[in-house]
Amino acid sequence: MFRSYLSGESEFAVVPVENSTEGAVARSMDLLLSQPVHICGEVSLPVRHFLLRQSPDLNGIQTVAAHPQALAQCAGWLREHLQNAEIRPVASNAEGARLATQDPTLAGIAAEQAAALYGLHIAARAIQDEVQNKTRFVVLGAVQPAPTGADRTSLILSVPNRAGAVYELLKPLAEHGVSMSRFESRPAKSGNWEYAFYIDIEGHQDEPQVAAALGALRAACAMYKCLGSYPIDKTPSED
């Protein structure tokens, strides 16, 4: 999806960034850092995983193929029901479903809709370990939403490797009354034990107090990247 968006084939891309069970989606986070992308929206969706194969039961399954996040989210179920099966990480759940169309001993983990798309049976339903499992996605696109009064701004920052640098990084937010809803670090892959900090703050970059905080952050950072401001997803949680 990143590739399609960056090549201009797609106007928008919807990319997973964090899961309520497994945490950050590392590959997405690294691409947000390294690629020239802009976030214009977000959505959080419940995750329901289905086991898909050519037969409607579990008999004869030797391999289960899916994206590593899906495999991790279903690890308990797989240990209980398919303990002898090979677990095969693949690039996407769609790839796992595609492989299942070619091998009757292989099952893929994917969304329910993939069964109809690939002509597969649902061998088991809702196999995720956590009932309330959700994934947060961000929408990549060139548009810049106007402030709504309920917005989020996403940043990637790095600071000099010295004592107190992270404290100083967060200080402008407190000084300007801006709340932080997410703070996560990832290796900057420079080889020097440096880290990039992924930060979500409440508010829109065009709001005066947020703009002032961002200006102070920019001055304090060794690297500053504003990914964009966008409306906070208000989709009600499922019971």
Automatic annotation (TrEMBL):
Give start-end ranges for the coiled-coil region(s). none
Q: What UniProt keywords apply to this chain's record, in alphabetical order?
A: Amino-acid biosynthesis, Aromatic amino acid biosynthesis, Lyase, Phenylalanine biosynthesis
Q: What are its E.C. numbers?
A: 4.2.1.51
GO cellular component, alphabetical, reads: cytoplasm
Q: In which pathway does it act?
A: Amino-acid biosynthesis; L-phenylalanine biosynthesis; phenylpyruvate from prephenate: step 1/1
What is the catalytic activity of this protein?
prephenate + H(+) = 3-phenylpyruvate + CO2 + H2O
Residue intervals of the ACT domain? 154-231
GO process terms (BP): L-phenylalanine biosynthetic process
Prephenate dehydratase domain residues: 1-142
Q: Which InterPro entries does the UniProt entry name for this protein?
A: ACT-like_dom_sf, ACT_dom, Preph_deHydtase, Preph_deHydtase_CS
Any GO MF annotation of the entry: prephenate dehydratase activity
Protein name according to UniProt: prephenate dehydratase
